[in-house]
Amino acid sequence: MSTTLRITSGRAEGSAAARRLRREENIPGVLYGLGMSPVSVSVPRADLRVALSGPAGVNTILTLEVDGNSYPAVVKDMQRHPVRRTVAHVDFMRIDLSEELTVSVPVHLVGNAKAVLAEGGLVDAAADTLEIVTTPANMPSEVTVDVSDMKPGDVIRLSDVTLPFGCRALGDPDMPVVTAVVGSKAEAPAPAAAPAAADGAAEAKPAS
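The structure assignment produced for this chain is given below.
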């Protein structure tokens, strides 16, 4: 399901105009894609926050209403203020709901790795997100990885991850996604033996 977001076209160009929009709690942006000429737009900050507040976050499929037309779209890029981290500019990309697109989806760990915890170890997500290719209709809000059967030293790699229907991952199949870090109760390696004196070593001579 998509979320409807009303945006306004025909905003004034230039840095001064953009600053004025932000003071009025509107965000300057642009809508483009599928052969359409880029359209300068503005969107109320509060409305954008609400539209992206669902489980899919920035991957939410949006129905943009502008100038009496509706366009399915996604957020392609959001620029943020370097200090306040508020959204300063947003790019909307018009999409075809039947065509594939590449999105970044968060990794969510489930289960209890009892064998790892029993050894004082921990399970660590080596990748917070995965790049996947999918259609908007099949776009997941997250990729779930079950860690229940992991043992100390185990690694779940990209090729081991079961993706939702209609999705395929980008990247090295051997890329670690989850690692089981060995804990304090694991058997420590034996200390190395002290090196023996070299054969034929010269003996210290008494002072004359």
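Interim note for the steering committee: The helical segments are 15-23, 45-51, 114-118. Residues 194-208 have pLDDT under 50 and may be disordered.
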